[in-house]
Design goal:
heterodimer; A: 7 helices; B: alpha/beta; Rossmann fold; two-stranded antiparallel sheet; 15 helices; 16% strand; globular
């Protein structure tokens, strides 16, 4: 009989499996941390620096374009596109930060496996992963990062709406603003109509 | 064979069986196709914009109670209350002789973007109630609010207490800031003005939030367990119906949803005060009619602590709590809740009707 609490008697295959999983997840942890750390040397990823430098200069040039003031006849359109590009980059950065915040969960989950075996490991891993996730998900950092992601996406949606509004106007198509305005008018008319009906009912009731 | 070899062989045997069972379960699910939902006969008695008011056909001799209107949440579809004949809270209520109505909020779209909670509560819900009262020639009915619909029902009962004879709140959030409430923690940093400006909130986004509450169970384990259901056609049918319901989430009207998140999740205004509908302040102390509060002890969406706060904030002297050992959705469909909940509701309503003479 083996005793689960005695590490010297743990099934060697299971122990090797867990070790391999931990190593694999450890590599991911390093990548996430490096990805989130913009000052990390490119070589740390094992990727040729020239390759990453090309991406870096592209990102920098995009960032520079975002900062250029929009001028000329296409000013309105350009301003929206710049804002969208800026928000897209912001979203990428926040998403990387959020992912890095969660990166330790799979590794923590592996530590919760008490009874390695074909039938039980998976269920124990799920339980353990949920516990590790819940510990983070209830935290202030998780809520802040998630809120920032949502807010950035919503800001992007607002700008997308403005861009569609701009194109719809150019093509003489009904715009969202026009449809919204009509909906508001219908709402006010219906409310006015209901108030009149209520007034008439009260008038009839009072006459009895 | 040594212990290491045996362990490896065991993993391979398990994997082989798992794959075989999973494929069989998936084959049956493909065969099942789109299963019908909604088990009980009903007729639409009132319709306005996207909303529909249904009346269910009786299944037993009427108990003679005031009609019962069910006000379900806007964030999911109400057919989970009548999913299939053997998993239907509505059917059970009908079998006790209760006259059941259901308010279906429908699928809001861009035309509802500026519709606020005042219109949903004091407009659509109010006019549905007026319709029922007129049809029955009575002054008040019983109201059963479920989940978010429970919160809306509490607002209505507080503003129009004379129209509600008895109020039942089921898995209803009241205190939105208890420590277990994960959704509330996440909602604190959302910029509501920006969200409202961005338009209606998609059902897909809401689904992602729900899955995010228990991501490993809800996006992995649940599907891995399909392998255990191979050969269990009835079980797979249940699974398919639930799967359909879970992801059938309507988009949420921007203004109403923004108000709900701001007032309830961020400001906890249902208990702290500050909710105003059409210029009328909502005070839970105005709820003086009998209240039955049914909550799920293992609810991960609306923690029990969020529901049981109700008793401390209402003005009613007749308050009853019923905790059921199920999860949020289990309240409507699980075997454990089946009959327990409907029987308790029928008994409680019957006692209140007798007391009222």
């Amino acid at each position: 009989m083996t005793n689960g609490s005695d590490s010297s008697t743990v099934n060697p295959v299971s122990a090797a499996y867990i070790k391999a999983c931990e190593d694999y997840l450890g590599v991911h942890q390093v990548i996430f941390e490096q990805f989130n750390n913009r000052t990390a040397p490119a070589a740390a990823f094992g990727v040729p620096p020239a390759f990453l430098d090309a991406w870096k200069s592209l990102a920098q040039s995009m960032g520079a374009q975002v900062g250029v003031p929009a001028l000329g006849p296409a000013r309105e359109h350009l301003e929206i596109v710049q804002k969208m590009t800026d928000l897209g980059l912001q979203f990428q950065r926040k998403y990387a930060e959020f992912t890095a915040h969660l990166a330790g969960i799979p590794q923590d989950a592996m530590r919760g496996i008490q009874h390695p075996g074909a039938g039980t490991t998976y269920d124990e891993w799920i339980e353990s992963a949920e516990s590790a996730y819940a510990a983070l998900a209830h935290g202030a950092t998780f809520a802040r990062l998630l809120g920032e992601l949502c807010n950035t996406l919503n800001a992007l949606k607002v700008q997308r709406g403005k861009l569609l509004e701009y194109f719809s106007r150019q093509l003489d198509l009904p715009t969202r603003a026009e449809v919204d305005s009509l909906h508001q008018q219908v709402r006010h008319l219906r409310e006015a109509s209901r108030q009149k009906s209520r007034g008439r009912s009260r008038g009839k009731g009072g006459g009895k | 064979m040594n212990a290491g070899d045996e362990a490896v062989a065991s993993i391979f045997r398990f994997g082989e069986q798992f794959q075989k069972n999973s494929l069989e379960a998936l084959r049956v699910l493909r065969e099942l196709g789109d299963l019908p939902v909604g088990a009980s006969e009903k007729v639409c008695v009132y319709r306005e914009d996207k909303i529909a008011l249904y009346r269910y056909a009786p299944l037993a001799r009427p108990l003679g109670l005031p009609p019962l209107l069910i006000c379900y949440a806007m964030v999911n579809r109400p057919y989970v209350l009548d999913l299939q004949p053997d998993r239907s809270l509505i059917r059970e209520l009908l079998s006790f002789g209760i006259d059941v109505y259901l308010l279906d909020w429908g699928y809001p779209d861009g035309a509802d973007r500026f519709t606020g909670l005042d219109e949903y509560v004091l407009g659509y819900l109010h006019r549905s109630i007026e319709h029922i009262l007129k049809a029955h020639g009575t002054g008040s009915l019983n109201l059963l609010g479920v989940c978010q619909g429970g919160t809306l029902s509490l607002c209505y009962a507080a503003l129009e207490p004379g129209r509600i004879a008895n109020l039942i709140a089921m898995v209803t959030p009241v205190d939105f800031k208890t420590p277990e409430n994960l959704l509330s923690k996440w909602a604190q940093h959302i910029d509501i003005d920006l969200m409202t400006q961005a338009g209606n909130v998609s059902g897909e986004l809401l689904n992602a939030a729900y899955l995010g509450l228990m991501p490993f169970r809800l996006t992995q384990q649940k599907y891995a367990e399909l392998a255990d259901m191979a050969g269990n056609r009835a079980g797979l049918e249940n699974f398919a119906r639930m799967e359909k319901w879970i992801f059938d989430s309507p988009d949420q009207p921007a203004r109403a949803f923004g108000e709900f998140v701001k007032w309830f999740f961020q400001d906890n205004a249902l208990i702290k005060g500050g909710v105003e509908l059409a210029g009328r302040a909502v005070s839970l102390k105005s709820i003086t009619q009998p209240v039955l509060n049914v909550f799920a002890r293992r609810d991960h969406l609306v923690p029990p602590s969020a529901s049981i706060a109700l008793g401390a904030h209402i003005g009613s002297g007749d308050y009853t709590e019923l905790g059921v050992d199920v999860g949020h959705i289990g309240m409507y469909v699980s075997g454990r809740a089946r009959n327990t909940v409907s029987a308790a509701i029928a008994k409680w309503l019957g006692e209140r009707a007798r007391a009222a003479g």
